[in-house]
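Thread: Newbie trying to understand structure tokens

Hi all, I'm a second-year student working on a class project, and my supervisor (Dr. K.) asked me to get a predicted structure for one chain before our next meeting. I've only ever worked with sequences, so writing a 3D structure as a token string is new to me. If someone could post the tokens and maybe explain what I'm looking at, I'd be very grateful. Here's the chain:
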Amino acid sequence: MSQASSWLRGAALYQIYPLSFLDRNGDGWGDLDGVLEGIGHVASLGVQGVWISPFYPSPQKDFGYDITDHRAVDPRMGRLETVDRIIEAAHGHGLKVILDLVCGHTSDAHPWFSDSRRSRGGEFADWYVWADPRPDGTPPNNWLSVFGGPAWTWEPRRRQYYLHHFLSSQPALNLHDEAVLQALGETAAFWLERGVDGFRIDAVDFFAHDPQLRPNPAAAWSGAEPPAKLFALQQHLHDMMHPAIDTVLSRLRAVVDRYPDRVLLGELSSQPGAARRIAAYCGPQGLHAAYTLSLAKQPFTAQNFAGALTGTPQRSCHEADSIAL
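---
Reply by user tm_fold:
Sure, no problem. This is what the structure looks like when written as tokens:
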């Protein structure tokens, strides 16, 4: 195991969602002052670290995962200086601090997207995934959003469709673009300089897609009715899990490796083959550890739990594969 990821082995992380954790100013919303006050209590539970969910400026259409500024704090939750105090307090209690790093998309209210949607010639024109319509005006292909409906939304100002794997207000960043990768690396360095111990990387499987935008084939289903989520009616061969994800992860790892004892923890989808992807994504040039949502989406039985623990290849997660969330 690498020294940088050694503290992850056997670690238990306590997730803090700031808006519902503790309200210190009486406005009805949890805030960062509440997180600061509660750090000592969290430490008393015997965990080794905290994962703090997004506190960045956001319209809050997806619980803060629709971000308008990756290097700031939403005013309803506090100030940047309070984040520094939280990190200091956590370290004083022997806790590591992991923040969410959302690399695959932004809010449609982000200044990057405001520029990108305006025309095809601006500074941020290529920072998102754009495609022309088919000759009949329909979307470029049949890809579906996880949250329902097409994964494409028409932008009349630019005369193109943009890709969104989740809400239509969460346009997908073009992680094939060098400028985007550079900006994400600078964001990671911004928080590492403030003392965070690593990042929980959101929705890794959606970082890259087939550049040819080939349609997905249908997936077989049984039963009298289709599944509640139409996303399950496709084999997701082209809209996600593209090999170019390795490039994104290696760029992030190169930034993190400049700082001692820092880590990358990846969130994978429940798509088939998650165990193989954990093995592929983790290693000296990728994530230190990863987890899949597969277990949470099946009945919680001893058999399923045992399968989740034993189904991941031994080389997965650079040997740092024992993490409780």
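A couple of things are worth pointing out once you decode it. The two ends are 20 Å apart (CA to CA). The longest helix spans residues 178-193. Feel free to ask follow-ups in this thread.
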